[in-house]
Amino acid sequence: MKKYILFDHDGVLVDTEFWYYRAGERALADIGLTLDKDRYLREMSQGLGTWAQARAAGIDEQTISRQRRVRNDYYQEHLRTEAIEIEGVVEALAELSKYVRMAIVTTAKRADFELIHEKRRIKQFMDFVVVREDYQLAKPHPEPYLIGLKRFGATAEETLVVEDSSRGLNSAVAAGIDCAVVHNDFTKSHDFAQATHRIETLAELKDIIIDVD
Hints:
By secondary structure, the chain is α/β, with parallel strands linked by helices. 41% of the residues lie in helices and 11% in strands. One of its GO terms (molecular function) is phosphoglycolate phosphatase activity.
């Protein structure tokens, strides 16, 4: 039986990944560039994204820095106005909390994370949250999940990671932790061959972490 679950955040607990992409798309459109979604999804698995395409198009770093701030503003606008809940998440977490301790390990910035959770009921089930400012090397590097293990005082063997992207899966695998990949339409084209489990919803996690016989 697993004793700990480390959840990715965006695309797993809240439906935000499309809106992060959309914010970047808007920021590039402001300077006359089109963000290629297929390329974005491919490069996302390497920890790259919007600005790799901007640099490839010859955009200078000063402009990128300015448009990054614009992107961040657009993203927060989406977080305030769009429906980003994933049905059944709170109920699944409430059930899982009877059996395991849980935490969040995310690439989200603290300001975005706090905005998302101002009026939501997800954080109450978590022992702690690791956000982007809490580590140096982002996913797919293992550092974020190794920090999660350390904060729990847990071994990799007694822990399960829940992810929705190949970048996050690769981070978990590099940290030596089993990973369940939950379906997300936005990242469904990613390579999940190394996943220990594939699930459609978080409700399926209970059967993975306990002996259901």
